[in-house]
């Protein structure tokens, strides 16, 4: 939760009286003072803040992540005798450029003058103010676009400088003095290290050399995870047919398929499914044996092509569940989109061909619609929030509606699997965006294991990373094509949905929202290898496990930071969570989307 | 409306099962001491909320002088019910909490007028409560006149025309008084003096000019006024204020910044001299003789009328009648919520409270809140300021003391605002709910600062409509004393 980190933030924040009134008076009060006594009992995860640490974190654009990280980095700082303006550095991080006399145009507290440093990992600004320096600390992976503002003819104060557009819902503006000629160097260094792949430089993850007690790369073992679910069994078997990624290059090396399916069947099915993404097992119900399987769309095309092997294979999936003589195929797309895909050779299963299967369209829009929705949301949230019509404004971005739609789809799948003991096959077009959302979310609702910290890491490793959600393309790591049509906040939506569920079931999750925010921050940061590349095959080729650090090494070595104090960890806990997917229950995740605005933070 | 007919309840159990409802003593409606049964109807169906009449429970519906009670043999209700108490079962509603009664026909939905007599057959009833609950009953399996009799019993007993007809006057249940040790009721002079001592706010005194309510009916008997003002000039000035609600102290800081509330001057009075005299005394009470900071809440906050209008829209949004309405609302929920203006009102009140708190805390200024009659928005903003500045009020008993002080003792007209009795001239308005919502917002922003929970707040609002508790029953202290002496 945000709270721990922001204790310090708020404490020193003299510009925002709204907080101070409440806070300071809470402090000033006598022994019966409630907040003080409460704080003592709830500050378990808080490291005792040193004086200097307190003061350096009182800036507008600070977030908890960087606060906590700086605390860690501060220990490095003391080892390496830096000049005071130099940023704390991570192992493997190097300063590449620095400009003095730069003004950060803070949208909340006004301009602040100081030193701007660019490293191979981050942009770091520290204002000259000695007591409470304004510090901006942004990993360059977060940057999506950098622009020069103003030219040689620019007059007026602060009209000449650089604007940095970020993937994490903020933009930063710096003003340079023309006579200092400092802009060019900073701009070039920023371009190079924010977009290393466009400049033939390696991503920072390959330079980063910190070591952690735990190796996060071992957290997910596909075979162990399948065994946890009871595979192999009579109906399902582990297959290594894709060991060399020859059947499907975007799928993992190991997967589980119906025990009856032969290698020939698999090859025939692969030829009938878009990008050979055949139906494979995601999850199996421990009691009913009803399953969630995932795949891509069938290649039906305009001619209505059929494939006997595929039909038989789907029948095998259905037969593997003795409880039901029916099965649902959940097509994540709006039906119009599914029909339109026929023209491009794709399509959907006709109920004539798949006799016992019922096809349902879940009406979730594609990556382009989602990208546009988030763009609107950012416009609304950053930098300043228009108070009047705020709710209507949020509504008009459709962001919450998309979240609702995804959650509603997930709830439908859970209902079929849990209440009707019926197996569900999920697909969209290629089966790596909406499909990942619609398998991972139901699994989270159905299986308490995925609601633990390590279980959640396994869930991401399995449903997102190993099954080939194209993180590289969707995020655009180190790439300067900011308007690339392949970029889309699909994974962010998934995390948002998870947050929505945690809001409805505050006792059901071992992790807190700070864990979710940490994952999102490092989704972009390129400090860890976890979210690099598009598929397991690429990760093996790039030797990510050997050459980079896993995000889970980092998170699992500071477990306590991410624990939810309300977690009810015992065997009696509710096994299945069925959240209410009504817009009345869907909230805007302000602690994430509006976190740069100091007046929107959760108070302590 | 044709759709309504299609979705009509379809029998889901055998007709034989409707023969009778057998209840154990546990399940039967409990009758309090002093409570009498007006009418009892058997084999009534209670529809599950938002089930489009497809799910229902069979049971006994009773109207008493205190409540509407539905008792069934279905124990699931009790298990699923998150809140229950000794007074009301899971499907009971106190008569005072009933807002509107609709008669539902095949294609019609008719709002019934309180006090009227229904002569025809009543097949279905929809009851909307003030706490946003809705209850829908069908009499299709009940005896011939059951529906009509229940309806008429409700129309007569749920809308008393006189205060003395409220159940509180008949209630003979022993009352629990143990909490009064912890909660300050602000009825006696000593309690006000104690508050002056507790806050360490100097230069204010307790005046006895209103000891027997001789100067103002609507204010309490003890008035905390500037040390320098004489009783005679106070009596002279009081005449000029609406509702005879002159400036009085409610809270202050050791540094001398006080929180004062007062009504507007009477509209007939042009000369502001009396007001100015008192404000000058207030200035003198400040250790640094600082000019008080006046906030005009009439101008800047919603009026009770606007609050009521907003609440009705909000209720429409929160109590959808069927799944079709639910879905169509869900489609543009946040826009509709915005359009109720409820959130805007909440935000305005919090903003004003913050402004006042800032003046008191940062600038050590005395703040004077001024509002029409002095007993609506003054209560909201004044108590919010104290919640923000004084941690004592964020404890459970402290919060109760705050409500006693700023709402009950200071004369928020609960009888009128909550609509306890039927009278065309009174203005019903959930000003108190608006306050509780503001408090909830604070608990959301400062989750660790409050001793009480969200459930506590909703319970306070629910119990405001239970005519057993006298806390929220009266318009002012004077009315309470008259009632007590009866």
TrEMBL record, chain A:
PROSITE patterns associated with the record: PPASE_MYOTUBULARIN, TYR_PHOSPHATASE_1
Top-level EC class as recorded in UniProt: hydrolase
Coiled coil spans: none
Disordered: annotated segments: 39-59
Active site: residue positions: 428
Residues of the Myotubularin phosphatase domain: 216-593
EC number in record: 3.1.3.95
InterPro entries tied to this protein: GRAM (IPR004182), Myotubularin (IPR030564), Myotubularin-like_Pase_dom (IPR010569), PH-like_dom_sf (IPR011993), Prot-tyrosine_phosphatase-like (IPR029021), Tyr_Pase_AS (IPR016130), Tyr_Pase_cat (IPR003595)
Compartments, as annotated in UniProt: Cytoplasm; Endomembrane system
Main location: cytoplasm
Family classification: Belongs to the protein-tyrosine phosphatase family. Non-receptor class myotubularin subfamily.
Topology relative to the membrane: Peripheral membrane protein
PANTHER family reported for this sequence: MYOTUBULARIN-RELATED, PHOSPHATIDYLINOSITOL-3,5-BISPHOSPHATE 3-PHOSPHATASE
GO BP annotations, alphabetical order: phosphatidylinositol dephosphorylation
Keyword Lipid metabolism: yes
The entry's keywords: Cytoplasm, Hydrolase, Lipid metabolism, Membrane
Protein known as: phosphatidylinositol-3,5-bisphosphate 3-phosphatase
Binding site for substrate: 341-344, 366-367, 428-434
CC per GO annotation: cytoplasm; endomembrane system; membrane
GO terms of molecular function: phosphatidylinositol-3,5-bisphosphate 3-phosphatase activity; phosphatidylinositol-3-phosphate phosphatase activity
Low complexity: bias regions: 47-59
Gene3D superfamilies listed in its UniProt record: Pleckstrin-homology domain (PH domain)/Phosphotyrosine-binding domain (PTB)
From TrEMBL, chain B:
Domain of life: Eukaryota
InterPro entries xrefs: Myotubularin, Myotubularin-like_Pase_dom, PH-like_dom_sf, Prot-tyrosine_phosphatase-like
GO biological process assignments: phosphatidylinositol dephosphorylation
Positions in coiled-coil regions: none
Entry's Gene Ontology cellular component terms: cytoplasm; membrane
Domain called Myotubularin phosphatase: residue spans: 186-486
Matches recorded under PANTHER family: FI17948P1 (PTHR10807:SF110), MYOTUBULARIN-RELATED (PTHR10807)
Family listed: Belongs to the protein-tyrosine phosphatase family. Non-receptor class myotubularin subfamily.
Protein's recorded name: Myotubularin phosphatase domain-containing protein
Organism: Asbolus verrucosus
């Amino acid at each position: 939760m945000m709270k721990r980190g922001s204790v310090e933030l708020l404490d020193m924040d003299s510009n925002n009286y709204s907080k101070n009134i409440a806070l300071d008076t809470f402090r000033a009060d006598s022994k019966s003072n409630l907040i003080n006594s409460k704080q003592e009992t709830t500050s378990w995860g808080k490291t005792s803040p040193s004086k200097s640490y307190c003061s350096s974190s009182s800036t507008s654009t600070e977030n908890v992540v960087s606060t906590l990280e700086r605390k860690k980095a501060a220990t490095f700082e003391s080892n390496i005798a830096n000049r005071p303006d130099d940023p704390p550095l991570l192992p493997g991080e190097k300063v590449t450029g620095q400009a003095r006399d730069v003004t950060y145009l803070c949208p909340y507290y006004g301009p602040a003058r100081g030193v701007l440093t660019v490293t191979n990992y981050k942009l770091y600004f520290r204002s000259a103010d000695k007591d409470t320096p304004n510090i901006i600390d942004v990993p360059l992976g977060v940057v999506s676009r950098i622009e020069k503002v103003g030219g040689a003819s620019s007059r007026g104060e602060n009209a000449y400088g650089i604007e940095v557009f970020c993937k994490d819902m903020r933009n930063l503006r710096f003003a340079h003095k023309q006579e200092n000629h400092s802009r060019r160097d900073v701009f070039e260094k920023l371009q190079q290290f924010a977009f290393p792949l466009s400049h033939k430089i390696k991503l920072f993850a390959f330079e980063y050399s910190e070591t952690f007690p735990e190796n996060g790369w071992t957290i997910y073992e596909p075979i162990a995870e399948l065994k946890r679910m009871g595979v192999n069994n009579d109906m399902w078997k582990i297959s290594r047919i894709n060991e060399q990624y020859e059947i499907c290059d975007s799928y993992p090396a190991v997967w589980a398929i119906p025990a009856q399916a032969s290698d020939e069947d698999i090859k025939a099915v692969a030829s009938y499914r878009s990008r050979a993404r055949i139906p494979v097992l995601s999850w199996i119900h421990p009691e009913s044996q009803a399953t969630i399987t995932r795949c891509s769309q069938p290649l039906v095309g305009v001619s209505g092509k059929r494939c006997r092997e595929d039909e038989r294979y789907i029948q095998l999936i259905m037969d593997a569940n003795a409880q039901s003589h029916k099965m649902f195929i959940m097509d994540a797309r709006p039906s119009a989109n599914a029909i339109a895909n026929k023209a491009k050779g794709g399509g959907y299963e006709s109920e004539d061909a798949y006799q016992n299967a019922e096809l349902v369209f879940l009406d979730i829009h594609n990556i382009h619609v989602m990208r546009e929705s988030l763009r609107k949301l950012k416009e609304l949230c950053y930098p300043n929030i228009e108070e009047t019509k705020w709710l209507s404004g949020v509504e008009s971005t459709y962001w919450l509606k998309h979240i609702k739609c995804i959650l509603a789809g997930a709830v439908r799948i859970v209902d079929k699997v849990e209440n009707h003991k019926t197996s569900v096959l999920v697909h969209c077009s290629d089966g790596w965006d909406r499909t990942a959302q619609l398998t991972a979310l139901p699994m989270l609702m159905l299986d308490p294991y995925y609601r633990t910290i390590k279980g959640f890491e396994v869930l991401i490793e399995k449903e997102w990373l190993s099954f080939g959600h194209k993180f590289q393309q969707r995020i655009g790591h180190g790439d300067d094509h900011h308007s690339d049509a392949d970029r889309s906040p699909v994974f962010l939506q998934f995390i948002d949905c998870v947050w929505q569920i945690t809001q409805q079931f505050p006792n059901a999750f071992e992790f807190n929202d700070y864990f979710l925010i940490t994952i999102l921050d490092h989704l972009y940061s390129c400090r860890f290898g976890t979210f690099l590349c598009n598929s397991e095959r690429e990760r093996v080729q790039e030797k990510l496990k050997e050459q980079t650090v896993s995000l889970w090494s980092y998170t699992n070595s500071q477990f306590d930071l991410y624990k939810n104090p309300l977690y009810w960890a015992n065997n009696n806990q509710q096994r299945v969570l069925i959240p209410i997917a009504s817009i009345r229950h869907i909230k805007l995740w302000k602690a994430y989307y509006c976190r740069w605005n100091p007046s929107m933070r959760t108070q302590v | 409306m044709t759709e309504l007919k299609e979705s009509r309840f379809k029998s889901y159990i055998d007709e034989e099962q409707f023969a009778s409802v057998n209840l154990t003593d546990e399940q039967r409606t409990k009758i309090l001491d002093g409570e009498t049964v007006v009418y009892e109807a058997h084999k009534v169906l209670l529809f599950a909320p938002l089930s489009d009449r497809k799910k229902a429970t069979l049971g006994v519906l009773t109207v008493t002088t205190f409540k509407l009670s539905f008792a069934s043999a279905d124990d699931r209700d009790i298990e699923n019910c998150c809140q229950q108490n000794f007074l009301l079962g899971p499907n009971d509603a106190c008569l005072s909490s009933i807002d509107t009664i609709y008669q539902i026909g095949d294609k019609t939905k008719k709002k019934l007028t309180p006090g009227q007599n229904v002569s025809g057959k009543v097949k279905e009833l929809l009851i909307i409560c003030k706490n946003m609950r809705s209850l829908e009953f069908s009499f299709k399996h009940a005896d011939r006149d059951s529906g009509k009799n229940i309806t008429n019993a409700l129309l007569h007993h749920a809308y008393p025309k006189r205060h003395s007809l409220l159940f509180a006057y008949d209630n003979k249940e022993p009352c629990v008084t143990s909490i009064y040790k912890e909660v300050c009721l602000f009825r006696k002079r000593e309690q006000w003096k104690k508050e002056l001592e507790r806050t360490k706010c100097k230069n204010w005194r307790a005046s006895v000019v209103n000891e027997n309510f001789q100067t103002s009916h609507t204010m309490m008997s003890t008035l905390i006024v500037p040390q320098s003002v004489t009783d005679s000039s106070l009596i002279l000035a009081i005449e000029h204020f609406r509702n005879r609600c002159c400036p009085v102290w409610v809270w202050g800081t050791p540094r001398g910044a006080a929180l004062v509330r007062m009504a507007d001057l009477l509209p007939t009075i042009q000369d502001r001299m009396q007001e100015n005299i008192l404000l000058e005394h207030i200035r003198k009470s400040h250790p640094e003789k600082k000019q008080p900071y006046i906030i005009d809440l009439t101008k800047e906050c919603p009026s009770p009328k606007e609050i009521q209008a907003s609440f009705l829209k909000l209720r429409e949004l929160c109590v959808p009648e069927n799944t079709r309405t639910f879905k169509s609302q869900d489609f543009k929920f946040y826009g509709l919520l915005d359009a109720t203006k409820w959130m805007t009102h909440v935000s305005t009140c919090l903003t004003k409270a913050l402004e006042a708190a800032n003046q008191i805390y940062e600038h050590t200024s005395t703040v004077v809140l001024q509002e029409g009659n002095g007993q609506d928005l003054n209560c909201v903003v004044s108590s919010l300021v104290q919640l923000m500045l004084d941690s004592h009020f964020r404890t459970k008993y402290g919060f109760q003391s705050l409500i006693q002080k700023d709402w009950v003792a200071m004369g928020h007209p609960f009888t009128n605002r909550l609509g306890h009795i039927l009278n065309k001239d009174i203005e019903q308005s959930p000003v108190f709910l608006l306050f509780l919502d503001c408090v909830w917002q604070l608990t959301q922003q400062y989750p660790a600062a409050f001793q009480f929970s969200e459930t506590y707040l909703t319970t306070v609002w629910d119990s405001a409509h239970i005519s057993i508790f006298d806390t929220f029953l009266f318009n002012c202290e004077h009315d309470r004393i008259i009632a007590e002496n009866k």
